[in-house]
């Protein structure tokens, strides 16, 4: 999408990165100093997080997070693919509107508005459905970009052989498009996984909700949420690294 930066731009990016890293390191050091002054770094406060029962409870929340994210991903990708393959005013308007509406607002609609009309879903679906509606719009854009990246000659070749347009799309265009957009799908999964933290609003027992319960139980608020943040960081960095590797692999294949 952008030209490769020249020598001057690379130097500017380098120094901006260095300054940003130093500022971030300074903020971390200041935070650690404040934590140490308040006794938050005392080993006794961190000892509970070296025990299996605590981790079993947090990992149970992580499993619920993964289940909700997988269910949301399946529904959102199915909806996004359907909208991408049916380009019209409605699908374009849906993609534009849903990408601007906060996900939390959709969760509140599912939690407070729909029950007044007799629609009261289980807690799991009160989280999954709003997330799926929101992320379907993002997947629509990704699928459209993937389909557009396929050489038009591929479709024309299939049509010239007498294959119906739907068959060409399903067996010729989409397999190639999926290879192009796999890194973007993984990157979108990172955003989706983070959005499952809204499960605390509907009392769904995902990772953040379990962290809040644990902090209320042991009184170690800062320690608990640092550990929860660390778990999110590990999972999301793993997915981000996977996306980078897939992108690098696709670039090597394209050469």
UniProtKB/TrEMBL annotation:
Name of the featured protein: Amino acid ABC transporter permease
Domain ABC transmembrane type-1: 58-243
InterPro entries in the cross-refs: ArtM/GltK/GlnP/TcyL/YhdX-like, MetI-like, MetI-like_sf
TM region positions: 12-35, 55-83, 103-125, 220-239
Keyword entries, A-Z: Membrane, Transmembrane, Transmembrane helix, Transport
Membrane topology: Multi-pass membrane protein
Pfam family, one: BPD_transp_1
Places the protein is found: Cell membrane; Membrane
Organism: Lentzea sokolovensis
PROSITE patterns referenced in this protein's UniProt entry, alphabetically: ABC_TM1 (PS50928)
UniProt family annotation: Belongs to the binding-protein-dependent transport system permease family.
